[in-house]
Design a protein that fits this description.
252 residues, 10 helices, 2 strands, extended
Length: 252
């Protein structure tokens, strides 16, 4: 028996490829209430190293079968999603959103390229303490991402066969790059006197606090001083990025 190998009321959509390799093909055609036992070979490159390259025996009971039916794409559907009077208005909103997303991606790619070009010419001492802290942060970011999928963190570590310390070491090169980028942004901000105004910081902080119903609820959930510091740093980096973009355009 596999540790944590039993799942109750597991649901998925056929054709999406989100289940165990070979699983979907075995249960296709079964009816509600049907039971079936079968085996499936695990690919050598499967993410769970504990069972990669082995054969797994399944015992399955089909509890329910549902049909995915897309709603009619009409004005009524558009109105149910928000302030869209017609389906054309919804399509236009989606189109604009996708275009903005692509513009944001391109802007981020360009900014990373600019930082990379500066980094190649920069000389600096990168403190080990900063790199270690960045590695810890990257591990916590991964833990948060895993938690959003509903997988227990300790189970995830067992499945990939790595400890937090091993993950941390694998993140070292990325951590060094992130620290160097942060130091470059800080140096440019100081040299060019680039920082947000108190009003700009307060405006962004107030926007972040809107998710809380009362000031008391916000005080219990977050460290306001830390939020202000974080917001100031984000806005400063944005001003530096815009400054670098203007410099790059001027060089064209």
């Amino acid at each position: 028996a596999l540790q944590d190998g039993t799942q109750e009321n597991y649901s998925f959509v056929t054709g999406e490829g989100r289940v165990f390799p070979g699983f979907e093909e075995q249960i296709t055609g079964l009816v509600k209430g049907a039971e079936k036992k079968f085996s499936a070979a695990v690919p050598q490159d499967y993410w769970n190293k504990a069972i990669a390259g082995k054969t797994v025996e399944f015992s399955v009971t089909v509890k329910n079968i549902q049909d995915v039916r897309a709603p009619a794409l009409d004005d009524a559907f558009a109105q149910s999603l928000g302030k869209f009077p017609t389906m054309d208005a919804l399509r236009q909103s989606i189109r604009q959103g996708l275009m903005q997303e692509e513009r944001d991606k391109e802007t981020q790619r360009w900014r990373m390229a600019l930082l990379g070009a500066i980094d190649k010419q920069a000389t600096m001492d990168v403190p080990d303490a900063l790199v270690s802290r960045e590695q810890d942060m990257m591990v916590h970011e991964l833990e948060h991402s895993v938690a959003q999928t509903g997988i227990d963190w300790s189970l995830y570590q067992k499945q990939i066969g790595k400890t937090e310390e091993q993950m941390k070491q694998e993140f070292k090169d990325q951590a060094v790059t992130r620290v160097r980028s942060a130091l470059i942004l800080r140096a440019i901000a100081d040299t060019e006197s680039l920082e947000p105004t108190k009003e700009e910081v307060q405006q962004e902080v107030d926007r972040a606090l809107l998710q809380y119903k009362t000031p008391e609820e916000a005080a219990k959930s977050i460290d306001v001083d830390a939020l202000v510091s974080y917001t100031k740093n984000i806005l400063t980096n944005e001003k530096v990025s815009q400054f670098l973009e203007s410099c790059a355009r001027a060089q064209k």
